[in-house]
Amino acid sequence: MATKAKCIGILTAGGDSPGLNAAIRGVGKAALGFYGMRIVGFRDGFRGLIENRRLELDRSTLSGILTTGGTILGTSRDKPHRMVINGRTRDMTGVIRDNLKKWGIECVVCLGGGGTQKNALRLHQAGVNIITLPKTIDNDVAMTDASFGFATALDIATEAVDRLHSTAHSHHRIIVAEIMGHRAGWLTLGAGLAGGADVILIPEIPYDVETIAEAIRQRSKHGSNFSIVAVAEGAMSRHDARVFASAERNLERAKTLNEKLEVKREIAALEVRHQGNTLRLARHLEELTHLESRVTILGHVQRGGTPSAADRMLATRLGTACADLIVAGKYGVMVAARGDDAEPVPLEKVAGKRKSVPPGHSWVESARRVQTCLGD
Ligand code: F6P
């Protein structure tokens, strides 16, 4: 089907995740082959739009990338409104808008997580035609059933939890497996459920270490002298959760710039301290249960390698739906997954929101039913 030839741009921003290349291919093949548009990739996130670093996406560039991990475009966490240029932080929003106009690029497709949705909304409000796709292994982008990257990371983390069982069992140990997710516990909860972790700790449910120790002691009493603890990066004790919540309240109340800066420094210091949380938790559990403990931090392994079939499908579905929206000139939206369909959601409804695990979510309830300790 031939339509008016449009030139569109595409970029990947934020942390990478499996399925990005499948999405680039989905948008690209539909835009180029099906609708007859031109498509240009910008390198390393929003920075590529400023430095005019491009990758022309033609049939051969789009070929063979469905199954590859990472992003052929490169990515960065640069924000258009706060970009470091020659050592100075500058607002480059206007530069991006003017560049796109000058280059005749009608619309930019941004593939990213929560931060990217916010950056895209700012650009849209400044007059740039934008469409976003949701990607993140954290699964926390609002207003979409799913984000690509999550399904693959879930498989990887589940396999890790599976593998840890036999070694924990052999040595009668506690193994504390740290899984990605600073603010949302989907990945840890999913991998913990699928992998049969004995304890699952997520940011949405602050824990009490004595409750966890007691659950582990009970397992030992019933003959299971080992335990797997799946802990999200951002999970925290009730005490730490109260300290963070109070600092965040102080930030909301801060009136002057100096007050705000001071509270922000305080929060940054708390975050640095929290980085050692998993190690401290394992040590604490060892003291309380007298079972030897070990820590496994899965880290970026969860973001690497070939995307799962589920992520390839999702990325292709959302990518091709995105091309349809470009043809219809429907901008300022994220292409969300709704059951088997894809639908546009205004960026205003997505940006700045997070999809957290609700307290009574069915995954949480299922975990409780199989007597997994959630630390509360
Ligand atoms: O947001 C995705 C994510 O993988 C988080 O789960 C993790 O905390 C973070 O990115 C790590 O980011 P970076 O790649 O910058 O270390």
Features:
alpha/beta; eight-stranded mixed sheet; 18% strand; binds 6-O-phosphono-beta-D-fructofuranose
Give the secondary structure arrangement, pairings included.
Layout: E1 7-12, H1 20-34, E2 38-42, H2 47-51, E3 54-56, E4 83-85, E5 88-90, H3 93-103, E6 107-112, H4 114-125, E7 130-136, E8 148-149, H5 150-171, E9 174-179, H6 186-195, E10 199-201, H7 209-221, E11 227-232, H8 238-253, H9 257-274, H10 277-289, E12 293-297, H11 309-328, E13 333-338, E14 341-346, H12 362-369
Parallel strand pairs: 1-2, 1-6, 6-7, 7-8, 7-13, 9-11, 9-12, 10-11
Antiparallel strand pairs: 2-3, 4-5, 13-14
Helix pairs in contact: 1-11, 5-6, 7-10, 8-9
Bound molecules: 6-O-phosphono-beta-D-fructofuranose.
6-O-phosphono-beta-D-fructofuranose (F6P) binds at residues 15, 113, 136-138, 180-182, 233, 303.
How would you portray this structure in words?
This protein has 376 residues and is of the alpha/beta class. The protein is built from twelve helices and 14 strands. The strands form three sheets. Strands 1, 2, 3, 6, 7, 8, 13 and 14 form an eight-stranded mixed beta sheet that branches. Strands 10-11-9-12 form a four-stranded parallel beta sheet, sandwiched between helices. A two-stranded antiparallel sheet has the order 4-5. α4 links the parallel β6 and β7. α1 packs parallel to α11 and α7 crosses α10. The mean pLDDT is 96. The structure holds 6-O-phosphono-beta-D-fructofuranose (F6P). 6-O-phosphono-beta-D-fructofuranose binds next to loops.
